Amino acid sequence: MITKIFNNGWGNHNPIHDYQEELIKDINVDVLIHSTWYTDDFHTEVLKWLDDNPVKTMAIVSFFDQHIATKERFAGRNISIQEIGYYDGPHFFDFWARFTKDHMAVPSDSELLDYQLINKPFLSYNRKPHEHRLELWEQFVANGITNKGIVTMDDIKQLDKDITPKEWAPPGGSSIVNDIASLGRTDLWCSSFLNIVTETWFDINRAYFVSEKIYKPIVGLRPFFVYAEDLGLRWLHARGFKTFEEDFKDIYPDTITKDNLVSFLKILSEQPTSYLHQKYVTFQNKILYNRDRFNQYVAEMNIK
């Protein structure tokens, strides 16, 4: 039975907190620590409490972002510690995959698979202006393709009209709405051929974290690339997903990487709409496989 919970993170008054609590309600430890926004000052408070209240078991939960708190910070104490969530260990749990499965609003297959709706080569939504997102934006500008696809970038470029999503998580960090539970406007999503994902972290493998962003094109039935150190290939392949870096040799001679992604997008943007239609049809088996594999992947997960 949990006797003490330490939480310095997103607060207790939002739906994402309630969803998290439902997932972890059966964890049987003395102390539970949330890793989100776990600062050095907060760590000092936790240690002081532990000094006064010896315990035998502890769980550190990292669901919302890359982990900060780790069991190494409690070395020397006779406490059995589980790291649950985005840790490379036996208690790994992909929270955002599970959230996507449970709560992502997705259009019907008849809409998503209607290739005749496609008239834009790519879509890239960028909310918070992280360094790698700004870098990608600057490459879009330099190559003259910001208006070839559907692109947003914080305050720099926004949609003329956006949706008003349910506020699952705290707002902030950008004037663009924090839409973690839908694909955005259905008309725009279905009109785009290729999705360009910019995750929270550029080096996904080092952070050992992804958000719902990487799973949106999978449940939204789109081919996609992740603008990341290795295009997210290690993460995706380790979980059984198929990727697309070798699939455009008909218009681009090289394997797609982070270094030539925008160069490829420029060529893709020069193709006629008929090419986008034909290519999407050839990808349908692969994108349907990815969605099936996603559902299986989530079913395989549990909180141990």
Question: Can you describe what's shown?
Answer:
The chain is an alpha/beta fold. The protein has helices at 15-24, 40-52, 95-103, 109-112, 131-142, 186-191, 204-207, 216-219, 233-238, 261-269, 273-300; strands spanning 4-6, 31-34, 57-62, 80-85, 120-124, 150-151, 192-197, 224-226. It has two domains: 4-93, no CATH class; 107-288, 3-Layer(aba) Sandwich (Rossmann fold), CATH 3.40.50. It is built from eleven helices and eight strands. Helix 2 (40-52) links the parallel strand 2 (31-34) and strand 3 (57-62). The chain starts with a strand and ends with a helix. The model has no long low-confidence stretch (mean pLDDT 95).
Task: Outline the secondary-structure elements.
Layout: E1 4-6, H1 15-24, E2 31-34, H2 40-52, E3 57-62, E4 80-85, H3 95-103, H4 109-112, E5 120-124, H5 131-142, E6 150-151, H6 186-191, E7 192-197, H7 204-207, H8 216-219, E8 224-226, H9 233-238, H10 261-269, H11 273-300
Parallel strand pairs: 1-2, 2-3, 3-4, 5-6, 5-7, 7-8
State the end-to-end distance.
15 Å
How many whole angstroms does the radius of gyration measure?
Answer: 21 Å
Low-confidence stretches: none
Query: What level of helicity do the residues show?
Result: 25-40%
SSE topology string: EHEHEEHHEHEHEHHEHHH
Specify the structural class: alpha/beta
Number of helices: 11
Number of strands: 8
CATH architecture grouping of the largest domain: 3-Layer(aba) Sandwich
Any idea of the CATH topology of the largest domain?
Rossmann fold
CATH top level of the largest domain is: Alpha Beta
Biggest beta-sheet profile = 4 strands, parallel
What would the principal axes of the Cα set say about the shape? elongated
Main sheet: strand order = 1-2-3-4
Number of domains: 2
| Overall average pLDDT | 95
Oligomer: single chain
